[in-house]
Amino acid sequence: MGNSGAVTSSRDLAQSIAWNRRNFLQLAIGAASAAPYALGQSKLMNPPANRKAVVVTFGGGARDDETFMPDGQENIPHLLNELLPRATFYSQVVNHGILGHYVATASLATGVYETFNNFADVSPENPTVFEYFRKDLKRPVTDAWVIAPSNGFTRIGESSHRAYGKGLGSGVILPKRLLAAALKADDGNKYEHLLRDNYESPLNAPELAGNGEQLHQIAELLKLSVTDFSAHAQSLASPDELSVYLARQLMHRLAPSLVWITLHDIDIAHSGAFSLYLEGIRRSDRLCAEIWRAIESEPEYAGRTTLYILPDFGRDSDAEAGGNGFQHHRTGDALSRTTWMIAMGPGIRENVVIDRPVDSMDLVPTIGARLGFSTRFAQGKALTELV
Amino acid sequence: MTPGQLQPESFQAYPPQARQLATRHLPLLRKLPVGFLPLLLREVIAYDYKFPVERKELDQQFTYLESMTAEQLQVIMRPFAQLHIAPEVEHLDWVSKPADFSEQLSAHLWATHQIDGFRAAAVVYVGKMNASRPENAVPAHRLGIVVIGQGASGKDYPLFRKLRPHGVHYKAVAPSNGYATVLQAVTARAAKFPTPFAHWKIDGGAAEPSAGLTSVSYDSLKRVRILLQAKIQKGYESGTGSEALRTALARTRPEDVGMNGSGDAAVLNYFQLSLLTEGSGTQIFSTTFVQWAAREVWRRAQPITLLAHFTPRQQQDSSQELLSEARRKPVLDPEGSLIDADMGAYYTWINQQRLTGAPDARFLAWFEDHGEALAIAPGLRRGAVSTDPVPLEKLLKELV
C-alpha cells in the first residue's frame, strides 16, 4: 500500500493517552494522583441504606484531542471546572469488547462483554445491573430506569438470562419514540431536530414508530401531560436534551435509586462533520453538569447519590491508517478502546486522578458494591478506590 | 469449499482480467488459509476496475507471496491459519462473494475477541510485504492543495491549528484571481506530467472538466445520490436492517444507477460509486464527501497532484430530510462547513504523508478568497508565521 508513516505501538499509545490526561488534569485543576490511597480497605462493606446511583454513558466517545488535550479543553468547561474538582477520575478505562454502541452499552450494563450483533433487536445474554439490583434488594420496577436513544436500545433493561430476565429488569424510556407517539401528524416539522437518529451510520433505520400506550403510561407515571411534554420538547435543541429533560422529570417524580442515561449526540461524528461532533461534545459536557446539579438539588438524591460518567468507548486515532480519524470506531486501535470515567458522590475522594488501567466491565461490580447487591455473573472487579 | 479445492471454473463470476489473474496464480491461492485468502480475493475480483498503481501493487503482492519457500509462506500465514472461524462463516461463498465474506468474518472476529490478533497479524504482513518491494517511483513530488471556507466569515475560529506545527502559517495572502489561480497552477502541472489518474480535482460543488485532471464533484453525482437516497429510504420503510442495507448498497453497480462507460471511464465510475456506497455521510454532506474522496484518491490512485475544494454542506436535520435531496433545496451551513473543512485539510495532509515520497511532498491549505493559508514543504520552516504580504500565485509557484 505504499504507506510510510511511523508506527506507534498500541501499548505506547495507551500509556501516552493516560500520561497526557493525568498531566493535563494536574495542570488544569491541580488534581492529585491516588496511587498511595489506591488499595485501602473497603469503606463500603456495609453500604448505607438509601444510596442511589446515576450512570451517564456517552454512546460514541469523544477523543482526548477534542476534550482533555489543550486544544480540546474549550469543549468541556463544565467537566473540567465543575465536575472534576469534585470527582475521582479514571484516566484509562479500556473496553476489550465489540465497539458498537448497543452491544457495548449492554456490556457496560451487564459487566460481561456481550457478543451479539450490534444491530440486532435482542436482549443481553447476561443479567443486567438492574436485575441484580432489583432481585437482591427486592426493589420494584419503578426503582430502576434506563433512558436511551430509541434506535436499538429497547431491550437493554432486561436480559434473557434464565436466573434473572423476565420481570426483573428496569423500565426503559425511549424519548424519541415517546415524542413520535405524542406528535400530531402535522407536528413533524417542529420536532425534526429531536427525531434525528443518524449516528452509527446514516444508513441506520430510524425506528421511530411511537407507541401511544407506552406514552400514556409514562406520562401517567411522571405526572406529565402529553401536551406539556410536546410543548417543552419543542424548546429543546437535541435528542440528548430530551433525554435529560425526561431523566429530570423521572428523578423528581419517582426518585428511582438506579438511573442509567445514555447520551448519543456525539455520535453524529459518523456523518463525518467535525463541527457537529464538537457541538455534540459541548452539549454532553453541559448536560452532565445539569444532571449533577439536578442530583444536588433533589432532596431524594442530594448527598446519597453516586454519579458515574463514561463514554462506552473511544474513537479512532488520526494516526491509524485503517480508520478515518474521529469519524468512526472501527479499527480497534488503542484510542478507540481507551476512554475515561468520572465518579463522584458520597465517600468518593475529590480531585483525584487514577492512572492504572481499569476495565469497562468494572463498572457493574462497583455499582453493586456501593449499593449493596451481588453481581455474581459480572466479569469485572469493583474499583478499589470507590468501594 | 476449501482453498485446496479451487479450480479455474471457481472464478467464473469474476470479470475477465480478474479471472485471468486468479487462474494464473491458482497454485498459490490453493495454499492460503481461509482466514486470509478471501481478503486477497476481494482485491482480485475488483482488478478490472482498479487504478493502475493498485493493479501494480496487487501484482507485486503475488510476486512477494510466490517468492517464498513453503516454510516461509507457512510462517507468515500462521496467524491467519490459526484463527478459529465458525463453520457457518467458513462455509459461506468466499470465492464468488469475497466482500460479503469479509464483512461476516470481521463481525465474527469482533464477536470472538480475535480482532486484535487479526489486526496485529495484518499489520505485520503488510509491513513485510511493503519492505519487500521497490518503492514506486513518482515523476515529481506530490502536491496536495486544499481550498476551504467558501462563503464563511471564519470569525473567531482559529484556522489550521493542527497543521501549523508542520509548516508556515501565512496571514497576508493576496487572493488575486482566487480559485481560478489555483486551478490554473494545477492544470499546468498536469500538462507537464501527463499520466492517467495522476492529477485529481475533487469539488464539493460543481466542477467543469479541466484538461489533464481527473474530476470528481458532489454536484455531478447528484442524480446518483438521489437514486441511492431513494434506495435507503425504501430500506427504512421495508424494515431492512442497516447491515442488509449496507450490503445492498455495496452490491450496487455503476450501470444500476446509470453510470456507463468502459476502460478508464469504467474505473472512474466504480470509484465514484464506491465513495457513495462505502463512505459514511458522503451521501448527505458535501464536506464529508470531499474529505473522504481525497482520502480515497490518495490511498488508491496515489496521484502526484490532488486539489480538494470544499464548499458549504447542508445544515444538520433529521435523517429523512437529509436524504430527501430530490424534493427540497437544502439550507447551507458555511461556518460549520469551514470547521469541517479545516479538519478535512488536516486529514488530507496526513493521508498524503502516508505515501511514498512523503519527505519531498508539498501541501497548501488556503481559506478561499481570504488572506490566510498554510504551506508545508521541505524548505519551509515548521511552526513559523508569516505576516508579509504574498500573492497566491507566488505561493503556488514555490510549491508546484
Question: What does the model show?
Answer:
The complex is a heterodimer of chains A (387) and B (400). Chain A contains twelve helices and ten strands. With 387 residues, chain A is an alpha/beta fold. In chain A, strands 1, 2, 3, 4, 5, 6, 7, 8, 9 and 10 form a ten-stranded mixed sheet that branches. In chain A, α9 runs parallel beside α10. Chain A is globular, with a radius of gyration of 20 Å. With 400 residues, chain B is α/β, with parallel strands linked by helices. Chain B has two domains: 130 residues, no CATH class; 257 residues, no CATH class. In chain B, the strands form two sheets. An eight-stranded mixed sheet of chain B has the order 5-4-6-1-7-8-2-9, sandwiched between helices. Chain B has a two-stranded parallel ribbon with strand order 3-10. In chain B, α13 packs parallel to α15. Classes of the chains: A alpha/beta (387), B alpha/beta (400). Chains A and B meet through α6 and α10 of A and α7, α8, α10, α11 and α13 of B.
Q: Radius of gyration of chain B in whole Å, from Cα?
A: 23 Å
End-to-end CA span of chain B:
53 Å
Tally of alpha and pi helices of chain B: 16
> Can you summarize the main beta sheet of chain B?
8 strands, mixed
Question: Largest beta sheet of chain B: what is the strand line-up?
Answer: 5-4-6-1-7-8-2-9
Mean pLDDT of chain B: 94
Low-pLDDT segments of chain A? 1-11, 36-42, 197-210
Q: What is the residue-averaged pLDDT of chain A?
A: 83
Based on DSSP secondary structure assignment, what is the total number of beta strands of chain A? 10
Largest sheet of chain A: 10 strands, mixed
